Sequence to fold (163 residues):
Amino acid sequence: MASFPPVLLAGAFFLIFGAIIYLVFRSARRHQEEMNRQIHSLGYKALGSPPPGLQTRVEELYQSPGEGQLVLENIYHRQELERDMYIFDVSDPRDGDSEAGREVFGVISSQLALPNFSLSALPEFDRNSPLGGLLEIMLDKVVSLAEKRFALRRVEFPDRPEY
Fold:
């Protein structure tokens, strides 16, 4: 059985490790280039910084007032009729490297007439446990009472059970 010198083994290891890192970065760059090509083919133009109106609206949707500034990156804009359409990424610098949203689509228009609404996250609990089942029944009764009393309407999002 042949023995390889430790220097040769270490060199081979670093060469393979370097090749893997290169392939990962190259793949990520190609993905970003393809996405940019698709976005440009839809008529969007890249923006260097977020317009103040977009920044304000995103912060109103993602957080409570006074919580700090969110970071908008990779911003693309397209204007159609009286609508400003955007595609962007949102991150919260207070949460380290977390993304609040990736490839978010937003529309700002004076023509939109949406009702006033708010999203409320339900508390976390195990709905399958006996205590969790009881909590779910109580929560449902409280929400039903509030719906009747304040003329509210519940909207559930099956793919987002926390709301």
